[in-house]
Input
Amino acid sequence: MTIASPKSPRALLKALREVLAQKAGAQARLDRVAQLVGGSMAAEVCSIYVLRADELLELAATVGLNPNAVHNTRLRLREGLVGTVADAARPLNLTDAPAHPNFAYRPETGEDPFKSFLGVAILRGGRPRGVLVVQNQIERHYAEEDVEALETVAMVLAEMLAATEFLEMRGAQGTAAEPGLPLTLKGTALAPGIATGTALLHEPRVRITKLIADDAESELARLEDAVAALRQSIDQTLRRDDPLFLGTPLEVMETYRMFAHDKGWLARLQEAVRSGLTAEAAGERVQNETRAKMMRHRDRYARERYADLDDLANRLLRHLTGRAGAEADIDGEIVLVAHHMGPADLLDYDHTKLAGVLVEEGTASSHVAIVARALNIPMLGGLRDIADQVAPGDQVVVDAELGELHVRPQAQLITAFRQKLALSEERRARFEALRDVPAETADGVHVDLLLNAGLLFDLPHLGETGADGIGLFRTELQFMVSRTFPRLTAQTELYAEVLNAAGEKPVTFRTLDLGGDKILPYFDAAKEENPAMGWRALRFVLDRPGLLRYQLRAMLASAAGRELRLMFPMVSEVDEFIRARSLVDREIEWRQRHGYDLPSSIRVGCMLEVPSLAWQLDALLPITDFLSVGTNDLLQFLFAADRSNARVTDRYDFLSPAVLSFIRHVAARAERNGVPVTICGEAAGKPLEALALIGLGIRSLSVPAAAIGPVKLMVRSLQVGEVEPFIGSFLERPDRSMRSELKAFAEENGIML
Output
């Protein structure tokens, strides 16, 4: 069959529509697509590579290469130019392909004479499904219009390859989980809690039946109407009289609204429609590009911003197809299942029925996780291909304490889970009964239990838990959830609101801990090989003193007439603390000079996270008001073990003699100088680790809200006089950890863990 060569992208799309409508088999249809594309782009070669289930890219169709190479030539992801395109999910446009360092020669293809190369990824759901390639013998740099046309064809191919008749070609037999069988998955807890319910797909995939437009102008009008409806729905959500919309959740939604008005996002949608796609297909194409960037971006903050744009694309598709509302007709509690979700989506559901959330993407600081915690909804992330492994209507058990998901659990597991839930409720009742009781040991030693916070919706936990104050308020979170730099008034109002909520209880503000994995969209950040040990925290603001002074000015203004406690993070040497403290003094002088009221008292502290500082304590302690030991960073620096690397994070134990000896050294020096020490970080919030810290002489712990009750229960059941000598006996031993011995000690002495 002879096919005329289209001369324009729209003509090419019309010809592809005819191919899609034909009843030919999978191989014949791919062959015809390769012939069409090659002719349209005046290319001597057009090849289609399909990603198989075993993650190999197989040459599935070609015009111009040796036909015997079809289904015989295979490349791994990142192997050769084709593998590079699939892995990066970005076009590769080369005038001299063999000169590229990733070029991989495959003699069976007969591609020796072809120098120019243009490859684009075939994406579906942001994941590679194959690669579309054109080649020429001459050194040709393909025009932007060629790249655009090839990407449009790749989108059509993605829908073709998803069809059932292509499963065998892809070496795929179906989904990863067999229907009806129990399945247990490990995830990451993004919002704490445990729950059970019926699975509901947050957004069953919008099936786009028409990819190619008949009338571009009418499609543009449909697109603009849908975008207007999307913006209106977000505005209506923000106008709701809901107590949730206070402080940070409101800021999150305001940022989300700004994305909906992003001109660049709308321009990309319009450009895709003008290329010949329907409005729905344009939305899916832009969404695919966004997802591909999100999945491959190493910057966590940038991934979260891409996630918001991806969610907007989902909502836009639902407006275009008339499915804009959330669908939750299930009786009883539901657990939402999604590739990922945006913050607005949770608000579409009845909060009283929403038991849990499961997402493939997401981090604890993502916008949707912030809103989930505000609503007290357990949430698990890091669940790869979750939407393919859980079917609507499946019974699921969410354990966001252990980070586990049980799909279609057996009766015995459900029974065990209900028992755990009952025990959890019983323990919670015991913790609530202790709310107004002091954290005092059986032999009369008081331990301050303080709260870790960073957002306004954390503040009610002060009263709910009976915490003695806020030992760590992370001020950078206000900066991370805002798309623009928070102005002086906004910072002052936030700090004043925190102090007002605390009343007579102390609040310790940590100055900005930015850099590393905390990148702001409105600051340019250089790429670093090891950001955890790079330009971050105090190093960052000392190089930009205006930023720190601006924050200090807001803190001093918010605390006028009352006590202000602040501390500097990641101090590596005493000189850094002195330089930072001098900026506090300059801001105090500025307020005095301009006649502004000052705090009634100002206490400036230092965080000890970098081990080098421990050997300058004699110089540091006389000039600091208090010390706070940040165990999260301390542990990774002590053992040179990146805490974001799963291969080494569990290799070293906090309850090792090395860590405990270090903390005892710090505690002893601080006590000698009369400087109070607080331990903050994950370790302080675990009853067993907290037991060891008390045995080392620590009398102040700053922990997450959920840890106040368990730690207080443990504190009230122990005798310090028994714990201290027991801990001391282990510090000189060569053991890797004293965890098992400490557990046995607690059991023998009736200490509640």
